[in-house]
Structures
1.
Amino acid sequence: MEAQKSVDLYIEFLRTRRSIRKYRNEPVPLDLILKVLDVARYAPSARNIQPWEFIVVTDSVVKNRLAEVYPWPQPIRGAPVGIVVICDSKSSPNTYQQDCANSINYIMLAAHAYGLGTVWQGILRDEERLQVQRILNIPSEKVPIAIIAVGWPAEKPEPRSRKPLEEIVYINSYGNRVK
């Protein structure tokens, strides 16, 4: 019974994580960010290469420059902290994107555990990557994957609807829906 309660708590924790785009105007201590990044080190990666590195950005000028990479409003402007996740594409040429996506999820979950809010801003286009590399002096073999805004939440978004399992799960082959 106790084990089931623990499982239920973990599942509820996962279900309550939200993308936070508005933050209180309160600093986040660096030691707390380092605790979050310490958890991210434990994310799974192919062959345990761990191709990720992290740049913690607290300078408002740098955060604004990063926000200007995109045409739409960016939560990084109002967040006390940005974490730029970069990957070594040479050490893990086939899986670096998936490996770093795992570390990003660990960052967001660890931040949630500490009461922080996050939102993941993907760096998808080559032009965006080049701009972020220039802004942060990232070597060319290191690929920026995402900017994560981090801070104390100033909003509590309601859960958004999810597709039913019957619509997204198949048994043994595509089209053989679970009932």
2.
Amino acid sequence: MVRASEDLAELSLEEARDAICYPTPFSSSCSERIAALKSLGIVSIISYGRFQLSNNLRVVGKGHAAVVTLAKHRVYGIVAVKVRRLDSKRSSLEEEGELLAIAHRTGFVPKPYAYTQDFIVRDFVEGPTLRDYLRSRHSVSSRDLRRVFASLILGFYKLDLIGIDVQEVSKPLTQVIVEHGDPSKPKLVDLESARRSERASSLTRFLGFMMRTLEGKPVYKVLGLEEKDLAEVLRLAREYKRADKRQRSDIVKRILSVVTGDDDHGCI
């Protein structure tokens, strides 16, 4: 678990302008952003992650719309803060924050503590990305690789059940964190593309990921599945998309049976 310790540089909000006001840290709006973060309970920014923003500041994530940094909250301790980039085409992070608050009860997304136009303060999910987890397939058992996929199938199904449609999940390699490397605890940390929908079908998009390749090898083969298994999963995905909620439960059980090789999945 990450802790604010001597090997993690802790910066004041002023010192962390490179993250809070990325990519223009001396923008006239930066002082307002710093004040807003303080009002949300953030007391410092912690330099941590794979992306280097400046000589003294690293962040957990950096995309076209936002950066994600580690921070210390006066009540919740270490948290993640999603920061809307100043040059982002997105006008606000509030809708994503609202969807996180709704979806948190599924156990498949991190808990949000606060959200505004420019920030989402949420649980920090520590662990490898799905890409890194799959890359470690030589040290992770085939059983655990299938378990993580089974957990993801259930997670996306639960989002569909509550009407949250994640529209960009066919490439989940960086959107999913396997919490502490536990295959039963993958978390979808990015709901940027999510919308409310009565006919949500996030699961079918995710299942399409099994056809893609990772370092030259199809994902379904990384899982130890055969072409006939993939064909059956895709057939069931098409059936799922057309089905009503009652029918979908049975279809998900059948998909899980193909992926895990186990017919007993209890109540879904």
